[in-house]
Write a structure and sequence with these properties.
This protein is α/β, with parallel strands linked by helices and about 700 residues long. The chain contains 16 helices and 27 strands. Helix 7 packs parallel to helix 8, helix 9 crosses helix 10 and helix 13 runs parallel beside helix 15. The longest helix is centred in the last third of the chain and has 20 residues.
Length: about 700
C-alpha cells in the first residue's frame, strides 16, 4: 500500500490536519473531534506516528512529528482529527544505534505505545521479524485507541473486602475453561467470558477472591521454539488486556470483555486480584526483539550492565525493568491506577517484587521510591498489595519487604508445611510458628496477621496432587531435558512414582492433600489455593508448565465428579473459615481472626507436654475463644504410626468434645457440617498416621447461617 508521510506545519487551521497536541496525558486519548497522542522518548531524534486500517497490513497513514512543534521536553505529542476508538496505531523512532551507550533505536521497527490501552496482534505476528533487520510493519503487534469512558459499570466498584475475610484462588484465565469438559461453549472456552460462565462453581466452593495469572498483553512467542508462553509472564503492555483471552473479534473486545468479567465476579461477591509483572518485559536480552520500550528509551526503561550493550538479568528472563527510574516509576503507578479506577480490580500480586527494590544499578535500596509511591498513592489506598518478596538473583525479603500495607507470599509457610507432612526431622517447631501467623517472621512489624499469604502450591511448581504423587519433577515435555524447574520440591510420592491403582496409596495421597488444605485454611493469615487443587488436578509431574498450553495445564472438569469427596471437603472447610453467626445477626469473620485473639496452649501426645525435639513429628494445639464460648483442639500427626493424644477436660458434661475433621476417615466422616459434628467419649483420641484432627466444644450452639453448607 502506498502512502505519503505527513509533516505537520508550524501553523494549520485545516480541521483535517494533525495539530500540535499535548504532552499530557500519555498514550492515545480520544476527545471531541479526534485523539491526542503522547509518548516519552528522551534521545529520539525523530518520531513517526503510523495509523493502520488493518492490523496485518502496512500503514495507511504516516504522520511525522516536528520536534519544533510536537515535542515538549522529552514528550512527543500530536492531535489527529477524526481518530476514534478502535484506531490501530504504532510508532517508529529514529535515534542513535549506539550500543556502547545503551542506545538501540531502529526506525524500521513498529513500536507499541507504552501507555496503549489496547493491543492488536496480527495472525502473522512474528517475534523473529522484530529481532531481525528490516521493516516489520505487517507482522508487528500494534496499539489500539481505547475510550474507557463509554463502558456502563452499572454501579460496580471494587469490593474492598477485608483481608481477614479473604480466601484466594489462583487461576489461569485460559486454563480454567479451555478443556473440552469445561461445559462452556467452544467459542468462549479459555476466555474472560468463559470464566464468567464458571462463577457459580467458585461461589459454591467458597472462594472470595480470584488471583488471575498475568492478563496484561503478553508475547506468546516468548518461549523456546515449538512452544508457547502459556503463563503470560512476558508483558509487552502494562495497560492492555490480553487479546487472546477475549472471545470477541473486534479490537475493543478485550477491554470490554475483561470489564464484563470483573463486574460479574463482583456481583458474585468475588474480588479480582491481578498477577502483575513489573520486573521485566518480553523484549528479552541483547538478542531479543524490538517491540516497544527498547526502541524508545532503552537505558531508561531497563537496568543495563557496565557493558551497556547487555542487560542486567535479575529476573532469569533476559532483562530487568528499571523500576526506580522516574519515567518507569510513573508508568507503573499510572498502570496500577488505571486498573483500579478504570478496570475496577481489587488488588495486585507483584511477580518477583523484590526487583522493585533495586536501584538503576541493580543494588537493593533501603527505601525504594517505587514501593513507597505505590503504598502512599491515594487511589491505591485499600487495594490489596501482595508481594512475591524475592527475585531470581537471590534477593529474598520474606518478612522484611518494605512498607506498611504490603502482604507477602509466605514461601517459608509453603516449605515448612511440606516438610512437616513429608515427615522431615526438625520441622515441628517451624510448623507451629506458621500456624499462628509466622510471628518469627512478622512479629517485629506489628502488622495484621494477614500480612502472611499462606499457600502450599501455586502455578510455579507441583500441583497439590503431584506434590503427593512424585518425588521428582518430570518436565521432559518442556524440551529442556528436564533441567528446568525447581529441584527442591519437598514432595513425597507416598510409595510409587506417578499414577497408581493401589487403593492404599491413593487413600494416603488423599489424606495428605486434606492435611495440606486443612492447615492452610486454619492457619492465621490469608489463605491461597491453586486452581484445581480441590479436585486433584495433575500436571503429570511437570513443575514448570509455563510453556504447556494443553491438557497438562488445563482444568479437567471431569475431576470434579471423580474427586467429589475432596471437593466437598474444601467446600466445608472454606465455609467454616468465613462464616460465624452471633444471635440473629449474620457476620463474616474468619476463624483465624478469632484464634488470633484467643488463649492458646501447645501440647503433645500428653497434655501440657509439647515435643519440640528434632525428631518430633506430632503436635497438638488448644485454643479457647471466649467471645464465642468455643474451645478448639487441633491434632497434627505426621508420624507414620497412629498416636493416642490426651484430651483436655471438656467444659462440662453436656458439651463434650465433638469431631469436625479427621482426615484419616473416609468421606463423608472426614469433615462434617459444623452443627452435625458427632460427640466423643473418653479422654484420648487416636490420630491415625499422617493425619489432622480438629475437635471442638461449644457452650451454646448457634444455628448454621445462610451460605454455610449443611
Amino acid at each position: 500500500m502506498m502512502f505519503e508521510v505527513e509533516v505537520i506545519p508550524t501553523r494549520s487551521d485545516a480541521s483535517h490536519s494533525p495539530a500540535q497536541g499535548s504532552s499530557s496525558p500519555l498514550g492515545a486519548t480520544p476527545s471531541h473531534g479526534g485523539a491526542n497522542f503522547s509518548v516519552f522518548s528522551k534521545d529520539a531524534t525523530g518520531l513517526e506516528l503510523l495509523l493502520f486500517d488493518q492490523v496485518d497490513e502496512t500503514a495507511s497513514r504516516v504522520i511525522r512529528l516536528d520536534p519544533a512543534v510536537n515535542r515538549t521536553y522529552h514528550y512527543w505529542h500530536v492531535f489527529v482529527p477524526g481518530v476514534t476508538a478502535g484506531q490501530i496505531y504504532g510508532y517508529r523512532a529514529e535515534g542513535p544505534a549506539d550500543l556502547a551507550n545503551g542506545m538501540r533505536f531502529d526506525p524500521t521497527k513498529i513500536l507499541l505505545d507504552p501507555y496503549g490501552r489496547g493491543v492488536a496482534v496480527p495472525d502473522r505476528y512474528s517475534r523473529n521479524a522484530a529481532s531481525e533487520a528490516g521493516d516489520n510493519s505487517a507482522t508487528a503487534m500494534k496499539s489500539v485507541v481505547v475510550d474507557p469512558t463509554t463502558y456502563d459499570w452499572e454501579g460496580d466498584a471494587p469490593l474492598r473486602r477485608p483481608s481477614a475475610q479473604t480466601i484466594v484462588y489462583e487461576i489461569h484465565v485460559r486454563g480454567f475453561t479451555r478443556h473440552p469438559s469445561s461445559g462452556v461453549g467452544e467459542k468462549i472456552r479459555g476466555t474472560f467470558t468463559g470464566l464468567i460462565e464458571r462463577i457459580p462453581y467458585l461461589q459454591r466452593l467458597g472462594i472470595t477472591a480470584v488471583e488471575l495469572l498475568p492478563v496484561f498483553q503478553f508475547d506468546a512467542q516468548d518461549c523456546p521454539p515449538g512452544m508457547v508462553n502459556y503463563w503470560g509472564y512476558a508483558p509487552v503492555s502494562f495497560f492492555a488486556p490480553h487479546q487472546g483471552y477475549s472471545s470477541r473479534q473486534d479490537l475493543l473486545g478485550p477491554v470490554d470483555e475483561f470489564r464484563d468479567m470483573v463486574k460479574a465476579l463482583h456481583r458474585a461477591g468475588i474480588e479480582v486480584i491481578l498477577d502483575v509483572v513489573f520486573n521485566h518485559t518480553a523484549e528479552g536480552d541483547h538478542r531479543g526483539p524490538t517491540l516497544c520500550f527498547r526502541g524508545l528509551d532503552n537505558p531508561g526503561y531497563y537496568i543495563l550492565e557496565k557493558d551497556r550493550s547487555r542487560y542486567a538479568n535479575y529476573t532469569g528472563t533476559g532483562n530487568t525493568l528499571n523500576a526506580n527510574h522516574p519515567i518507569v516509576r510513573r508508568m507503573i503507578v499510572d498502570s496500577l491506577r488505571y486498573w483500579v479506577e478504570v478496570m475496577h480490580v481489587d488488588g495486585f500480586r507483584f511477580d518477583l517484587a523484590s526487583i522493585l527494590s533495586r536501584d538503576t544499578s541493580g543494588h537493593p535500596l533501603p527505601n525504594p521510591p517505587i514501593l513507597w509511591d505505590i503504598e502512599s498513592d491515594p487511589v491505591l489506598a485499600g487495594t490489596k498489595l501482595i508481594a512475591e518478596a524475592w527475585d531470581a538473583a537471590g534477593l529474598y525479603q520474606v518478612g522484611s519487604f518494605i512498607g506498611d500495607s504490603w502482604k507477602e507470599w509466605n514461601g517459608r509457610f509453603r516449605d515448612d508445611v511440606r516438610s512437616f507432612f513429608r515427615g522431615d526431622a526438625g520441622s515441628t517447631a517451624r510448623l507451629a510458628d506458621r500456624l499462628i501467623g509466622s510471628p518469627e517472621i512478622y512479629a517485629h512489624k506489628q502488622r495484621e496477621a494477614e500480612q502472611s499469604v499462606n499457600f502450599v502450591t501455586c502455578h510455579d511448581g507441583f500441583t497439590l496432587s503431584d506434590l503427593v504423587s512424585y518425588d521428582h519433577k518430570h518436565n521432559e515435555a518442556n524440551g529442556e531435558d528436564n533441567r528446568d524447574g525447581a529441584d527442591d520440591n519437598r514432595s513425597w510420592n507416598c510409595g510409587i512414582e506417578g499414577p497408581t491403582d493401589d487403593p492404599d496409596i491413593e487413600r494416603l495421597r488423599n489424606r495428605q492433600i486434606k492435611n495440606f488444605l486443612t492447615v492452610t485454611m486454619l492457619s492465621i493469615g490469608m489463605p491461597m489455593i491453586m486452581m484445581g487443587d480441590e479436585v486433584r488436578r495433575t500436571q503429570f509431574g511437570n513443575n514448570n508448565a509455563y510453556c504447556q498450553d494443553n491438557e497438562i495445564s488445563w482444568f479437567d472438569w471431569t475431576l470434579v465428579e471423580r474427586h467429589a469427596d475432596l471437593h466437598r471437603f474444601v467446600t466445608l472447610l472454606n465455609a467454616r473459615r468465613i462464616m460465624r453467626v452471633t444471635g440473629h445477626e449474620r457476620r463474616r469473620v474468619t476463624l483465624s481472626d478469632l484464634i488470633r485473639h484467643a488463649r492458646k496452649t501447645w501440647h503433645g501426645v500428653m497434655i501440657g507436654q509439647p515435643d519440640w525435639s528434632h525428631e518430633s513429628h506430632s503436635l497438638a494445639f488448644e485454643v479457647e475463644i471466649r467471645e464465642e464460648r468455643l474451645h478448639v483442639y487441633l491434632i497434627l500427626n505426621a508420624y507414620w504410626e497412629p498416636l493416642d493424644f490426651e484430651l483436655p477436660p471438656a467444659g462440662n458434661d453436656s458439651n463434650p468434645w465433638r469431631r469436625w475433621i479427621d482426615t484419616a476417615l473416609e468421606a463423608p466422616q472426614d469433615i462434617v457440617p459444623w452443627q452435625a459434628a458427632p460427640s466423643l467419649s473418653g479422654d484420648t483420641y487416636r490420630a491415625a498416621a499422617r493425619s489432622v484432627v480438629v475437635l471442638f466444644e461449644q457452650a451454646e450452639r448457634s444455628r448454621a447461617g445462610p451460605g454455610e453448607p449443611d
